[in-house]
Amino acid sequence: MKDFTLDIYRDLLETLQKQGYALISYRDYLADNCKSKKFVILRHDVDAKPENSLKTAQIEHALGAKATYYFRVGKESNNPEIIRAIAALGHEIGYHYEDMSLCDGNMDEAWSHFQIWLNYFRQYYAVETICMHGAPTSKWDSKDLWKKYDYRTLGIIGEPYMDTDFTDVFYLTDTGRCWDGYKVSVRDKIPGRQEEWTVKGLTWHTTPQLLEAINADKLPAHVMMTTHPQRWTNNKTAWLKELVFQTTKNCIKKLWIKN
Ligand SMILES: [Zn+2]
What is the pLDDT of residues 37-61, one digit of tens each? Predict the structure, then answer.
């Protein structure tokens, strides 16, 4: 079976459900709304191609799953029609912020930029959670804004990198178009925890390998799974483009991290 298609994504969700996992939004995790012993927080970073996110949102909706979709301010992500459509399916919408990068490290400017855009997204959905966009080529870490300011003053209840108990929740991400991309990731990883998970063998490269682990009941009971819907597609040309692009990008990142 080909990896990173919508078909295998559906298979992944169905397999999780079959193993007793509730599929929940980040808001539901924070609000402790999930009564199931096993859960997977479905987090989506809509970095690009928002139309792909509508497709994963529809698949999730059909399965009775809830997810959180984080949108960026740029045109490559920010599509009001799609935001509305995903919200109408019952999913959570959040702000995928990168204000420190966009304001070139100026904290005060970034803080007002953050508020303007939070209000923008709140036109479409009562946003309660936000999530950093990793921006690997930027020298700024947008989480640094929280060294001076507090998002809670704006009614935000959580940020995955700041408010998730990663001593309890295992982290999976498709960064780098694989499930062990933390090796080449600059910011999308959980320092201090990844080492322990690796020692425990909780690391898989492909989705079929991950599916095998879920079926064998090897996945921890509490998980946050981050996916970038732009790389999940059934379209053959787009699929091949994403494969070539990500393979090249990973090679460059590997060289860059080593140096
Ligand atoms: Zn992102």
Answer: 999 999 999 999 999 999 999 999 9
Q: From the CA of 188, how far away is ligand 1's center (Å)?
A: 9
Q: How confident is the model at residue 258 (pLDDT cuts 50, 70, 90)?
A: low
Q: How far is the CA of 216 from the centre of ligand 1 (A)?
A: 31
Is residue 176 within 8 Å of residue 250, measured between CB atoms?
yes
Rounded to 10 deg, the angle between the 80-88 and 50-62 helix axes is 10
CB atoms within 10 A of CB 103: 19
| Distance separating alpha carbons of residues 53 and 50, to the nearest angstrom | 5
228 C-alpha vs ligand 1 centroid, how far in Å? 8
Query: Residue 227 Cα, ligand 1 centroid: separation in angstroms?
Result: 10
Distance 253 CA to ligand 1 centre (A): 16
Task: State the helix-helix crossing angle for 50-62 and 6-18, rounded to 10 degrees.
Answer: 30
How many whole angstroms from 174 Cα to the centroid of ligand 1?
11
For residue 96, the CA-to-ligand 1 centroid distance in Å is 7
Whole-prediction pTM value? 0.94
- Quote the Cα angle for 145-258-162, to 5°: 25
- Listed in sequence order, the residues at least 6 apart from 179 whose beta carbon sits closer than 8 Å to its beta carbon are 172, 173, 203, 204, 205, 206, 207, 209, 210
- Residue among 80, 77, 81, 75 nearest 96 (CA): 77
Q: How far is the CA of 71 from the centre of ligand 1 (A)?
A: 8
**3-class SS of residue 241:** helix
